[in-house]
Design a protein that fits this description.
binds pyridoxal-5'-phosphate, Aspartate Aminotransferase, domain 1, 385 residues, alpha/beta, 7-stranded mixed sheet
Length: 385
């Protein structure tokens, strides 16, 4: 495919088998655990579902790599599998990791409670304070890990500065790009080494599978693949098929997510019952400058605080008709959640407080419903007593 082919076209055509298998317009599911021996000489070349190299994996991996203009990609059993396999590939006993302090709850808990057991040291860094990164850097630092939009405070760090810092100090730079999706941000184009996704979210978009991927250079992805072959976090062919199907509509869905979330954020910002809105698309937001520089859209995720704290938050959420109270994000339906009781419940109240996540912070994943219906629903739910 030509280099200047647009992402909307790549979503449909990149990676598709040529010639089509049996003429099938839609990639069939190859539900076979193993494949007949064909002269392979290395373990990694044997075709087997756990080795992530069956026809459904290959098509999907080529498509994912094309979306972010990278050489290679690996699909994994979950977003966490892509993150843990990536970190454990490039960090070993005695190494040090720099990691952003406002992470997805699962990643935060993994770093904070697991990696020291492998003899890996780490320091949390403030994404917006470059001096702080220099201070925390050590001779044994190997990896810097950030999120392109953080959860649930929706912060956007200076992503180019992260890449430059990594290059200057010969670190591997990894970014969790789940929230923007490849439509809004493509990390490789800015020099990141690796981009991880929870494909459970926007890439699949239909809230019906758990999956992940990591995208980057052929050399690095090959190393992670070998690690994952041992760790075992592979994606089943049927889930590959569903993810492949979901990805084809990513651009249409993201356009609507971007537009709906901006409108919702503006509505909430102007509402007297709302204390604070976190959304990088708002000009008043302190992360707007970075978001505008790096992103083609601001995504569908926002968080906010109501006046009246926890009791208002609970009442408001119960009154919503079109937003389901549920964790997770990135599907076609709008969802609301209190991160303190779901994604970030693994952190202590004190850890949450230090990260600026209050117990009554509401996070909303804005879906692709009609804007007017979403706004009318929010409006009635904000009439609290
Ligand atoms: C959901 C999520 C993950 C974890 O993904 P799973 O698919 O649930 O394993 C990681 N990072 C971010 C930003 C997420 O939203």
């Amino acid at each position: 495919m030509k280099k200047n082919t647009k992402i909307e076209t790549k979503l449909i055509h990149s990676g598709e088998p040529n010639p089509r298998i049996g003429g099938a317009v839609s990639m069939p599911i190859f539900q076979s655990a193993m494949y007949e021996y064909c002269g392979e000489e290395k373990y990694q070349d044997i075709k087997y579902i756990r080795l992530n190299n069956t026809p459904n994996h290959i098509v999907l991996q080529e498509k994912l790599a094309a979306l972010e203009n990278a050489e290679s990609a690996l699909v994994t059993a979950s977003g966490m599998a892509s993150i843990t396999a990536s970190l454990l590939t490039f960090l070993e006993k005695g190494d040090h990791l720099l990691v952003q302090d406002t992470l997805y709850g699962g990643t935060h808990t993994f770093v904070n409670h697991e990696i020291e057991k492998w003899g890996i040291e780490f320091d949390f860094i403030d994404g917006n304070n470059l001096n702080n990164w220099e201070e925390k850097l050590r001779p044994n630092t190997k990896v810097i890990y950030v999120e392109s939009i953080t959860n649930p405070l929706i912060k956007v760090t200076d992503l180019k500065a992260v890449v430059e810092f990594a290059k200057n100090h010969e670190l591997i730079s990894i970014v969790d790009n789940t929230f923007p999706s490849p439509i809004n941000f493509r990390p490789t184009e800015w020099g990141f080494d690796l981009s991880c996704h929870s494909c459970t979210k926007y890439l699949n978009g239909h809230s019906d599978i758990v999956a992940g991927c990591v995208i980057g250079s052929k050399n690095l992805i090959e190393k992670i693949t070998h690690k994952l072959n041992h760790l075992g976090g592979t994606l089943d062919p049927h889930a590959c098929f569903l993810l492949h199907r979901g990805i084809k509509t990513l651009s249409l869905r993201m356009e609507r997510h971007n537009a709906n979330a901006l409108r919702v954020a503006q509505f909430l910002e102007d509402h007297p019952g709302v204390d604070k809105v976190n959304y990088p698309g708002l000009e008043s937001n302190s992360h707007h400058k970075n978001a505008k520089r790096y992103f083609d859209g601001f995504s569908g995720m926002l968080s906010f605080e109501l006046k009246g704290g926890m009791s208002s938050a609970k009442q408001f959420m119960e009154k919503l008709n079109f937003s389901i109270i549920a964790p997770s994000l990135g599907g076609v339906e709008s969802l609301v959640t209190l991160p303190s009781t779901t994604s970030h419940s693994g952190m202590s109240t004190n850890e949450r407080k230090n990260s600026g996540i209050s117990n009554s912070l509401i996070r909303m994943s804005v879906g692709i419903e009609h804007m007017d219906d979403l706004i009318a629903d929010l409006k009635q739910a904000l009439e609290l007593h």
